[in-house]
Amino acid sequence: MNEHPEPGRPWQGPDNGPAGWGLPPDPHGGGLDPYNPSTGGYMPAEGGTPLPGEPTLLTIGDIAVTQNTVITPAGRFPIKGTVWTVTDMSRAEQHTPTWAIVVAILVFWWTCLLGLLFLLVKETRVNGHVQVTVQGAGHHHSTLVPVSNRVIVTQVNQQVNHARSLAA
User: Fold this and answer.
1) Count of CB atoms within 10 A of residue 19's CB?
2) Radius of gyration of the CA atoms of the chain, in A
3) Residue 64: CB partners within 8 Å, gap ≥ 6?
4) Model confidence over 8-21: pLDDT tens digits?
5) Global confidence as pTM
């Protein structure tokens, strides 16, 4: 049996059935157990098994929150009793934009000192991160959310407040 088909030809099943572009057979003879720690899957916490098909209510960085569960790369745990912390590590810088400097130089030659008023124009740039930490049920996870304006900081705070209300 040829496991690698020739270029342009579809994979042929071991029973010489019809050729198709479907998935090749599983060489290990079985599917992966999604909650097996040896395969890297999430392991549900005792008593906190999420309901099947439970929708994700919000996502903060790499933390997903459902009605009853917090899902992190380290695993799943119940949301009840979790402690959420937000640390704003962003900073705002004010500077004179390039267009204002160019206009000030061009207008200065015709109106003398009046063109210098364009140098009073300031633009605010926000950069940095917001750190969100969740602790509960013997788990601790922290994530950084990049920030490019103050609206994102407000949105992250609102999402964490929603998660806190679910944890209460």
Assistant:
1) 12
2) 28
3) 56, 58, 70, 71, 72
4) 665 555 555 555 55
5) 0.58
